[in-house]
Specification:
336 residues; mainly alpha; 18 helices; 82% helix; globular
């Protein structure tokens, strides 16, 4: 074996020895969450969080610490980057410019509302951006991506975990309630799909709600939701510029390489040249990376710390959720 390859192999092997135990723990928790999700029909990410919290002692000291940290950071960014394989430019343009403007406006206004409500509730702007982005874009995935580029703070991980739990819970409620709301409002198939895709927090719940109504509504809701996912790119870039000085002062330079790969994968997927088997593999790999990262964040979180959050954050996320639902409902009624 040439000495260059041998040295490279030694470096990789040493890195695996350092991080492997923690990564394997996080993957095991993610697999258990997948099994429970399939059996009980509840969100996989919520199970991953709760199971992860039960193993918090592994993050306090021992051989798993480095791998848990790696899963919560690097695997997280990798999973977010791979989300780009779900989106094509054609899907977005098919929604129509009026609907695209309505959805984009809802994203921006929800984040701004989150900042304002958070300050009224005595929380920092970080929490409003985090929750507003999670509610407005794509739930837990958006919360993780935003947290990855925001300046570190004493409560940042606790706020991130709470946001993931809250938006997942609200998303499950919305999956049941919002199809009824669209029916009572008299929305047609296209408008109903855009309403569901433009309001429900997580992709899985959007799919569940949409296809419960009809195949047409499910298809439109999924495309609408994927456009909201693509809004991660401008939001992450703007936030990186806004908090550049704070990150620099804290000695942290946010890694935006995952945003670049996200954009590249959207372009590749839009070309229509990706074989179905590879497309499916990349989408599944993205989901597994994100669930593994959620498990790692759960392991890093002490349940005792979560009990001190209070009622204010719940009110913030509730107001944000009601606002974006009202914005999209009124918008679809006016466009009709």
């Amino acid at each position: 074996m040439p000495i260059v390859f041998r040295n490279r192999f030694n470096v990789l092997w040493q890195s695996w020895q350092e991080r492997g135990p923690g990564i394997l723990i996080c993957v095991t928790v993610a697999a258990a969450a997948q099994l429970l999700s399939q059996h009980y029909g509840a969100p996989q990410m919520l199970f991953a969080l709760l199971l992860g919290m039960a193993f918090h002692f592994l993050h306090e000291e021992g051989p798993c610490v480095a791998g848990i940290q790696y899963s919560a950071t690097t695997l997280l960014r990798f999973g977010v980057a791979l989300l780009g394989m779900r989106i094509t430019f054609e899907q977005v343009l098919g929604l129509g410019l009026d609907s695209v403007a309505l959805i984009a406006g809802g994203v921006v206004l929800t984040i701004l509302l989150g900042i304002g409500i958070s300050k009224l509730m005595g929380k920092k702007s970080f929490f409003g951006i985090l929750t507003g982005g999670a509610v407005a874009i794509c739930g837990a995935s958006a919360a993780l991506a935003i947290a990855a580029i925001m300046p570190p703070s004493r409560n940042s991980e606790q706020d991130t975990i709470f946001t993931v739990i809250a938006v997942t819970t609200f998303s499950t409620v919305a999956m049941v309630a919002y199809p009824l709301i669209s029916s009572l409002a008299g929305l047609d198939g296209r408008s109903s799909g855009i309403f569901l895709g433009g309001t429900i927090h997580d992709v899985a719940q959007v799919i569940g709600a949409g296809y419960t109504v009809s195949e047409e509504v499910g298809d439109i809701a999924t495309v609408t939701k994927l456009f909201r996912v693509s809004m991660l790119v401008p939001v992450i870039l703007v936030l990186s510029l806004v908090f550049r000085s704070e990150n620099r002062s804290a000695g942290r330079a946010p890694n935006l390489l995952f945003v670049l790969f996200f954009c590249i994968l959207i372009g590749i997927n839009s070309s229509g040249l990706v074989p179905e088997a590879i497309h499916t593999f990349v989408v599944d790999l993205s989901r597994w990376c994100l669930v593994t990262a959620i498990a790692a964040l759960g392991i890093k979180t002490a349940l005792k710390a979560m009990m001190t959050i209070g009622y204010q954050p719940v009110i913030v996320i509730l107001i944000e959720s009601v606002f974006i639902a009202g914005w999209m409902l009124v918008g679809m009624l006016l466009l009709n």
